[in-house]
């Protein structure tokens, strides 16, 4: 922790004295640190002003996913989805966060059936009845970031795919229920993993969620195979995503050798993912984007 005098300005730039602002919170965090817990640094915790701006970004993100939900259907190309995202993000004054991020070529990720994540939109990929597709939207609005994704079932899908989509959403909801101040990321992770395993599914280990808000990807990394009471302490002001990738078959994955982005299941059985962006509050949580 930074050494700040009780009467010095608080590190969060609120304009208040430290003793009137974050001193009590920092003292509680320090108590957990001395017990050997992994605790967040100040730069992970968002201030009220920053949270308000992140909410503004999230409003755009949610509106775009709502638009896609109303228009996605059999016969459209994933390139059309990408155009929708780009146009509506720019119209709202934002920037699609994935576009050119570490070389990613599009404004959104569209991952179909056995694609676990990072599916690249293409005019050659047309949605067909029976597909399940994850549309992952991320928005940069005035330097503040939001991120969420939803699963869509195209036409009539098999009972097996529908069940995977449903159970995956339940995993997110059960994980979310474990988010509360002075709990641990591992509490959420175990709830996700237990529900997936109990339903005969596997959880992808190598890819997880992340902190977000002032940058697209921040600390902490958020996995879904940790045990309760482990991983980083949950502290009010933390903002991160819950986005488990649940496979119908085994957990093994591989990355497309040609585009170096798209992740597939090794056994080519379907995978599903829902993503929400969560703020830890003093009493529990707030879903910022969904």
Give the structure's gist in a few sentences.
The chain is built from five helices and 15 strands. With 290 residues, it is α+β, with helices and mostly antiparallel strands.
Overview of this protein structure:
The chain is of the alpha+beta class. Helix content is 28%, strand content 22%. It has helices spanning 23-34, 48-71, 78-91, 159-176, 185-198; strands at 95-96, 109-112, 115-117, 132-141, 144-153, 202-203, 209-211, 218-222, 239-242, 245-247, 253-255, 263-265, 271-273, 276-280, 285-289. β4 (132-141) and β5 (144-153) form a beta hairpin. It is globular, with a radius of gyration of 20 Å. The two termini are 33 Å apart. 44% of the residues are buried.
């Amino acid at each position: 922790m930074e050494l700040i005098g009780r009467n010095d300005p608080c590190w969060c730039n609120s304009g208040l004295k430290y003793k009137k602002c974050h001193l009590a919170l920092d003292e509680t965090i320090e108590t957990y640190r001395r017990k050997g817990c992994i605790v967040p640094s100040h730069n992970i915790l968002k201030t009220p002003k920053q949270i308000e701006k992140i909410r503004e970004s999230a409003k755009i993100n949610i509106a775009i996913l709502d638009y896609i939900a109303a228009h996605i259907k059999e016969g459209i190309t994933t390139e059309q989805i990408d155009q929708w995202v780009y146009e509506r993000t720019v119209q709202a004054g934002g920037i699609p966060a994935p576009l050119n991020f570490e070389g990613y070529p599009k404004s959104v990720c569209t991952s179909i059936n056995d694609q676990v994540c990072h599916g690249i939109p293409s005019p050659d990929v047309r949605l067909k009845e029976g597909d399940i597709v994850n549309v992952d939207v991320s928005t940069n609005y005035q330097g503040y970031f939001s991120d969420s994704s939803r699963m869509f079932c195209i036409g009539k899908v098999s009972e097996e795919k529908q069940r995977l989509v449903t159970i995956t959403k339940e995993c997110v909801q059960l994980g979310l229920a474990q988010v509360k101040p002075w709990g641990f990321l591992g509490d959420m992770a175990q709830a996700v993993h237990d529900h997936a395993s109990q339903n005969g599914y596997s959880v992808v280990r190598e890819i997880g969620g992340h902190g977000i808000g002032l940058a697209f990807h921040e600390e902490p990394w958020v996995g879904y195979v940790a045990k309760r009471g482990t991983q980083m302490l949950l502290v009010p002001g933390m903002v991160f995503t819950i986005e488990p990738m649940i496979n119908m078959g085994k957990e093994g994955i591989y990355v497309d050798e040609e585009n170096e982005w798209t992740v597939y299941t090794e056994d080519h059985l379907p995978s599903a993912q829902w993503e929400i962006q969560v703020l830890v509050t003093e009493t529990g949580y707030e879903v910022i984007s969904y």
